[in-house]
Design brief:
This protein is of the alpha+beta class and 175 residues long. It has eight helices and four strands.
Length: 175
């Protein structure tokens, strides 16, 4: 279980308002990918530090996470991203478009001044976590998660102008 304890230590350095005690008191039964993923999700959701949603049902709302609550993100409206999809000819949209929309990247642009970032665990659907925007601690977290076969997607920040450029030319740049 030393790998699990290293993961908890990486989370402690990376995740604002994280309390390691509940995880340390209830270690996972084994170190298998799904077991660790569901154990993490259960504990982090209880602390309001992680949210889960299905990509195809996500409409670009800012995740309800404890570190984001004190921030005024009201000006960060991602509806323009959804509108761009409706303006793009369907033949130019890839089949996996719900997975490609840069909602989190757009939010990360607004979170940059606060030293925060939204990351996801690569899995069938989205497990979203708010972390400190610090490359060293993110790299340590990514390495620790990789020990369990879980990939961390860091969702680099994109401004509105960068997103508009991404979908320019009839959506050819979505991929």
């Amino acid at each position: 279980m030393s790998l699990v304890k290293r993961l908890i230590a990486a989370l402690e350095k990376c995740v604002p308002e994280f309390d390691p005690a509940p995880l340390l008191a209830d270690l996972p039964e084994n170190a298998e990918e799904e077991t660790v993923l569901y154990w993490l999700a259960e504990h982090l959701e209880k602390q309001q530090l992680m949210v889960y949603f299905e990509w195809k049902e996500y409409t670009g709302k800012i995740p309800n996470l404890k570190p984001l609550k004190p921030l005024d993100l009201s000006a960060c409206n991602a509806d323009f991203i959804t509108d761009l999809i409706y303006e793009t000819p369907p033949e130019n949209l890839p089949w996996d478009i719900p997975y490609e929309l840069p909602y989190l990247e757009y939010f990360n642009d607004a979170l940059k001044p606060h030293g925060l970032r939204l990351v996801t665990f690569a899995y069938e659907n989205a497990y979203v976590l708010c972390v400190n925007d610090d490359e060293a601690s993110l790299d340590a977290l990514a390495a620790s998660l990789k020990e369990f076969g879980i990939m961390l997607i860091q969702n680099e920040a994109m401004s509105k102008d960068e997103i508009l450029a991404c979908v320019a030319d009839d959506g050819e740049n979505f991929n």
